[in-house]
Amino acid sequence: MREVAELAGVSIGTVSNVLNNPAMVAPATRARVRAAIESTGFVRSTAAHQLRGGKSRSVGVVILDVSNPFFTDMVRGAEQALRDDGYVLVLCSTDESPEREQHYLGLLEEHRVEGVLITPAERELAHVVALANRGIPTVLLDRSAPAGALCSVTVDDVRGGELAATHLLSSGRARIALVNGPASIRQCADRRRGARRAARRLGLDADKAIVEVVVPALTDVHGEHAVERVLGELPGVDAVMCANDLLALGLLRGLAARGVSVPDEMAVVGYDDVAFAAMLSPALTSVRQPKLELGIAGAELLLEESRDPHHVHREVRFEPELVIRASSLPTVGSAGVDARRAGRKSVADPATRRAQPPRQQR
Q1: Which CATH number fits domain 157-287+322-354: 2.40.50.140, 3.40.1550.20, 3.40.50.2300, 2.130.10.10?
Q2: Which of 340, 83, 158 shows the shortest CA–CA distance to 236?
Q3: 205-229: per-residue pLDDT in tens?
Q4: Does CATH number 3.40.190.150 belong to domain 54-156+291-319?
Q5: What pLDDT, in 10s, does the model give residues 280-313?
Q6: Burial class (CB within 10 angstroms; exposed 0-12, middle 13-18, buried 19+) of 229
Q7: For the whole prediction, is pTM greater than 0.70?
């Protein structure tokens, strides 16, 4: 920095202001200092600056699965809101592991991030609240917080589950298999509540109309594995509601491999409405979440909290929207459940599936 100051003919303090508070320096002086920086190849030591000022200009983002487009879209929204303020994001993917989540939070604290945006891996939030209590602004993404404990941005997942199930049951489907994640994931529990509420509001027995298939992780691989249970263990199912679009992607792949026609024999609905949902064949009906807006709102709450000493924690809640596409629409000449079930020998044998004669449309 001294060499830059000498070359530009200014003090070291002026060079520091150009780097950290450029608005305080006259434009001509700024230009001279920046030319000297370029000429000398000077690179500021962020670590040293951080030790002196306690500020890193970085925000940690902790999500469940970096391969899930829902989370990448949400992170893109957060980055969009933070970059104009000079922040960079440090991205951590926990793969839904509470242990990995705690490890990453510890690392982020050690590196003195100025805030954390997090989608927690489980319901227990004591360690997240403790982080905030140690002075690191923390905002929950796609997750509610205990009253007054943290800021959060959420989507009404109970309503989302209700929208999906109401659509399927109202269009004549008799029994829904809900391919869902563990109840420890709040979003999965809420979507289940919404689906059951839809059945009750339609005058149906929720235990008969909605049957749950729990998978260990919300991935396309587990969605494909769920097909065996849906076809082999759940009589009368003629619709599947998936807890996210990745599960639905795998499920559609598994149904196609077994010769099950969608939507003629089985209607399918996903959740999140990620970009690939509209590109599948058939195009996937899905509950849309405002992914980009979730990230933007979370980042704005984080900035608000970091700047305002009198900040009061609050929740921003968005409403979901059902986007209906071909995967759940009844079609002329669709086969029925009884025809699919009759004479089945093995759900793993696609030839057996194709041999079933279609029944006339009800």
Answers
A1: 3.40.50.2300
A2: 340
A3: 999 999 999 999 999 999 999 999 9
A4: no
A5: 999 999 999 999 999 999 999 999 999 998 999 9
A6: middle
A7: yes
